[in-house]
Design brief:
With 342 residues, this protein is of the alpha/beta class. Helix 2 crosses helix 12. It binds phosphoric acid mono(formamide)ester. The site of phosphoric acid mono(formamide)ester (CP) has 9 residues, from helix 2. It catalyses: carbamoyl phosphate + L-aspartate = N-carbamoyl-L-aspartate + phosphate + H(+).
Length: 342
C-alpha cells in the first residue's frame, strides 16, 4: 500500500488486514508501555486546510505512539492566508523531509493531486477531502462495529480478533446511515467500505440531502427513518452531522438549502423514542462533531448504546495501523493492495 486515498481502493482482504493490525495496536495501548519504537526517525506531517479536532489529534497521537516525529501544519495562521498554493505548501513541507503527509482539504481530490503530483515523496493519507472521502473514519467505524456487533455472538462484545477468513466480517449486518448524505464524505466512505465487508447499508435522508447519482451507490435509500428502524431493525445506526457550513440560506453556490431545524429533527433526528425502536444490541454512532438537539438528542448521544467516544479512541488504533502499514512496509498488506491507491 503506497497511499490511502479512498475506501474504494480497499478490497476486503486489505481492509481486514488494516482492521486486524488496528486490533493489535489497540491491544498494545491497553498495556503499560504505550509507545512503540516502530517509526523512530520517520516524520509525519499533518497538513490541515480545514478545521478538525478528532482526526488531527488522533493522527498526531497515533504517530507519536509509534515514535515518529510529527509536524503539525494548519492553514489558518500559515502563508496559505497570503495566497500560497497547495503545491508550494507541499514543496515546502517536503523540503523538511516528510515520510507521510496526512492531508485534510476542503476540495474533493486534493489528496489525490498531492499523491500523484510528485510534490511530495512520502505516503499521502486522506484525512477528509471536501464531500468526497474520509477513509480512516470509515475504517474506525468498521472497527467499532466489528468489535461491538459482529463479534458479539462469537466471543462476546468488545472482543478483538479475526472473524471471517473470507474478509466478509460484517456480512449480513444491517447498518443505517442517517442525515446529511449530500455533504458527507463519511457516508460515501462508509457505504463503500461496509459493502466491501459484506454489510447491508441503507441511507436515510430527506430528498434534498441525497446526492444526484445515489442510485449507483451499493446501498438502499429511504426517506423514512421510522420505517427503516421498525422494518429493518438495524444493528448499527450512524447519525451524520448536518453540515451547515456547506449549506446556504438560499441554496446558492452549489450547496443545499439549510433545512428547517424543527422539521429536520422531527423527520430525521435520533431521540429516545426512536432509540426504543432499535433492537436491544444495536449501537448508536456519530463521527462527530455532533449538533446536539438537531440530528441527535442528548438522550441518544449519551445513552449506554452510544459508542461515539469509543469511535474516537478506536481512531487512534486504526491510524496507528495505517501509518505502520504505509511507513514500516508490510508484505501481507501490500500484496493485497499493491497499486490500488498509488
Ligand atoms: N470525524 C471527524 O472527522 O471529526 P473532526 O472534523 O473533528 O476531525
Amino acid at each position: 500500500m503506497r497511499h490511502l486515498l479512498s475506501t474504494a481502493d480497499l478490497d476486503s482482504a486489505a481492509a481486514v488486514h488494516i482492521l486486524d493490525t488496528a486490533a493489535q495496536m489497540a491491544a498494545t495501548q491497553s498495556r503499560e508501555i504505550k509507545k512503540l519504537p516502530t517509526l523512530r526517525g520517520r516524520t509525519v506531517v499533518n497538513l490541515f486546510f480545514e478545521d478538525s479536532t478528532r482526526t488531527r489529534i488522533s493522527f498526531e497521537t497515533a504517530a507519536k505512539r509509534l515514535s515518529a516525529d510529527v509536524i503539525n501544519f494548519s492553514a489558518k495562521g500559515s502563508s496559505v492566508s497570503k495566497g500560497e498554493s497547495l503545491k508550494d505548501t507541499a514543496l515546502t513541507l517536503q523540503a523538511m523531509g516528510a515520510d507521510a503527509v496526512v492531508v485534510r482539504h476542503q476540495s474533493s481530490g486534493a489528496p489525490h493531486t498531492l499523491a500523484h503530483s510528485g510534490w511530495v515523496d512520502g505516503a499521502v493519507i486522506n484525512a477528509g477531502d471536501g464531500t468526497h472521502q474520509h477513509p480512516t473514519q470509515a475504517l474506525l467505524d468498521a472497527f467499532t462495529i466489528r468489535r461491538h456487533v459482529a463479534m458479539a455472538g462469537a466471543a462476546g462484545a468488545g472482543a478483538i480478533g479475526q472473524l471471517d477468513p473470507t474478509g466478509r466480517d460484517l456480512a449480513g449486518l444491517k447498518i443505517a446511515i442517517v442525515g446529511d448524505v449530500l455533504h458527507s464524505r463519511v457516508a460515501r466512505s462508509n457505504v463503500l467500505l461496509l459493502r466491501t465487508l459484506g454489510a447491508d447499508v441503507t441511507l436515510v435522508a430527506p430528498p434534498t440531502l441525497v446526492p444526484v447519482g445515489v442510485e449507483a451507490w451499493p446501498c438502499r435509500v429511504s426517506y423514512h427513518l421510522d420505517e427503516v428502524l421498525r422494518d429493518q431493525q438495524p444493528d448499527a445506526i450512524m447519525m451524520l452531522r448536518v453540515q451547515r457550513e456547506r449549506m446556504s440560506a438560499g441554496g446558492a453556490g452549489g450547496g443545499a438549502f439549510f433545512p428547517n431545524p424543527l422539521e429536520y429533527t422531527r423527520g430525521f433526528g435520533l431521540d429516545a423514542r426512536r432509540l426504543a425502536l432499535l433492537p436491544e444490541h444495536a449501537i448508536v454512532m456519530h463521527p462527530g462533531p455532533m449538533n446536539r438537539g438537531l440530528e441527535i438528542s442528548a438522550d441518544a448521544a449519551d445513552s449506554p448504546r452510544a459508542v461515539i467516544v469509543e469511535q474516537v479512541a478506536n481512531g487512534v488504533a486504526v491510524r496507528m495501523a495505517v501509518l505502520y502499514l504505509l511507513l514500516a512496509g508490510d508484505s501481507a498488506g501490500s500484496a493485497s493492495t499493491a497499486g490500488s491507491a498509488s
